[in-house]
Amino acid sequence: MITTLMFFRKNSANLVLTLSTLLSFCCFYFYLRIIFNEFRRDVDLDSEPNVNLTFEDQTVQIGKYEELAFLVKTYITLQAINSWLIIIRLLFEFGFSKEISFLIDIVHEALLDILFFIMTFAIVTYANFLKLQKF
C-alpha cells in the first residue's frame, strides 16, 4: 500500500497513466460485449418490421435494442474520457522536455490569438453555410 502511494505521489503523471490504463481495459470489456452481443449478430436491419409480433415480443425486442444502445453509449463515453486522459498524459510528457516545454509556453502565450482565429473561422464558415442554405 505504501509503495502504491509513493508511486502516485512521485509524479502526478503516474496517476493519470494508471487511470488511462484502467479505462482502456474497461473500454475493451464494453467493446467485447458489443461485438459478442447475440442480438447484434442476429438482427437484420434491412428487413421489414414484423407487425405480427405480440406486445410482449415487441417489448423484448425494444429492450434488446436498448441494451445494445446503452453498451454503445457507455463505450463512447469511456473512450471520450480516456482520450482526454491521453491528451493530459501527452502534456505531462511534453512539459518535462525543455524544447517542447518552450513550444508549449509559446502556444500558451498566444492562446487568446489562436482562439480568436478559431472563432473567426467558425463564424465565417457558419455564415457561408447559412448563405448556401437559402438557395
General description of the model:
- By secondary structure, the protein is an all-alpha fold.
- The protein has two domains: 2-43 and 52-96; 108-135.
- 85% of the residues lie in helices and 0% in strands.
- It is flat.
- The mean pLDDT is 77.
Give the total of beta strands. Answer: 0
Query: What share of the residues does DSSP label as strand, in percent?
Result: under 5%
Compute the separation of the termini in Å: 67 Å
Mean pLDDT: 77
Write the layout of secondary structure elements.
Elements: H1 2-10, H2 12-35, H3 38-42, H4 55-95, H5 98-109, H6 111-134
Helix pairs in contact: 1-2, 2-4
Give a summary of the structure in a few sentences.
The chain is an all-alpha fold and 135 residues long.
Considering the chains and any ligands shown, give keywords for the structure:
flat; 135 residues; mainly alpha; 85% helix
